[in-house]
Amino acid sequence: MEATVIHKFFESLRGKKILVVGDVMIDSYVWGRVDRISPEAPVPIVSVLKREDRLGGAANVALNIASLGAEPILCGLIGVDSQEMIFRKLMHDNLLTDEGIFTASNRPTTVKTRIIGGKQQLLRIDEENSQPVDEHTEELFLTHIQKICKNKDFDAIIFQDYDKGALTPAIINWIIDFGRKNQIPTLVDPKRRNFSAYEGVTLFKPNFKEFCEGLQVDLDKTDRQGIFASAVNFLQKHNIQYLLLTLSELGVMLVSLKEYFVIPAHVRDIADVSGAGDTVISVAALCLAAGMTPYQAAALANLAGGLVCEKVGVVPITRQMLESELLNWKSFDIA
Predict the structure, then answer these.
(1) Best CA proximity match to 115, nearest among 125, 106, 105, 107
(2) In whole angstroms, what is the distance from residue 282 CA to residue 272 CA?
């Protein structure tokens, strides 16, 4: 692909504003070396070499968007606790505004701590309250989101749902209505609790496990006609335009009411799939905001999601990573 075309595409992302609403968290890592098994229990002993905190969940989506040159506005909930300042510092260190972040005194900041020995994740520790927010917090958070929306013009909206309680039906409905009234494409990365709550969005992006659980169907990942039939029924029922289904090693499947396309995965040396879904939804949203077709958005998102799987831990896609790959990819046209 010509370098001038690729450069023009990335430059078109500058100035695009993307509203990201969802569950934010800190991804904390303990990196170490494993040389022996504990005499106290049959578990490895990790000799700690390094600790690191990163933005996770919906915050990683915002980081992906910023890394590609656009401007994310992130709305999420954190606690009034010792992790609050860590989260805000991570936002500032990554040049992200925290104007959309709302503190709730009755909930903790969500933290996922991964223990990694060499390149192998050995354990994950979750500190969280995953229950839906109470009515008072919901009302305050929604008012906060409404103020953000009143003062910004957005080119796309992303719901990044991790079932941690920040997204409620009332919040979801208001934002979808806001997007529809202002002709803004809305995209969803769903989880189980609110799976059927996103009536009228533009693009719905579950992974295969979430798709089967959400629709309560038992399908094989290779049964394209079965997936297509179930997906069309879901799209019709919930007034959704497109479903972008991630199929891990089989790539992605883009479904509309009339047809479907399967875009194969690119051969990768997979190190860690953590955060790949964040990258897929981020790139898809930016592509739609830039005026690309849903198929082009799906193809480029598929490529980007595979690239971040080559990295250990949750990392965002960067312009350099994607640009380098596109220069060697002759079968895709973004002109």
Answers:
(1) 125
(2) 18
H-state helical runs in the chain: 3-13, 58-67, 82-93, 135-150, 169-181, 208-215, 224-238, 276-289, 294-308, 319-327
So where are the chain's domains?
Answer: 3-25+56-327
Would you tell me how many other CB atoms lie within 10 Å of the CB of residue 145?
21
User: Using CA atoms, how far apart are residues 9 and 287, in angstroms rounded to an integer?
Assistant: 9
The residue behind tokens 């500190």 is: 127
Q: What is the DSSP letter of 255?
A: E
User: Amino acid letter at 226?
Assistant: G
Catalytic residues: 278
Q: What angle do CA 50, 310, 29 make, to 5 degrees?
A: 25
Q: What's the predicted TM-score (pTM) here?
A: 0.90
Q: Name residue 91's amino acid.
A: M
Domain 3-25+56-327 has CATH 3.40.1190.20: yes
3-class secondary structure, 200: coil
| DSSP β-ladder status, 203-204 and 111-117 | unpaired
Q: Round the CA-based radius of gyration of the chain to a whole number and report it.
A: 20
pLDDT attached to residue 47: 96
Residue count of the chain, please give it.
335
Span 140-158, pLDDT tens digits: 999 999 999 998 899 999 9
Res 274: pLDDT: 59
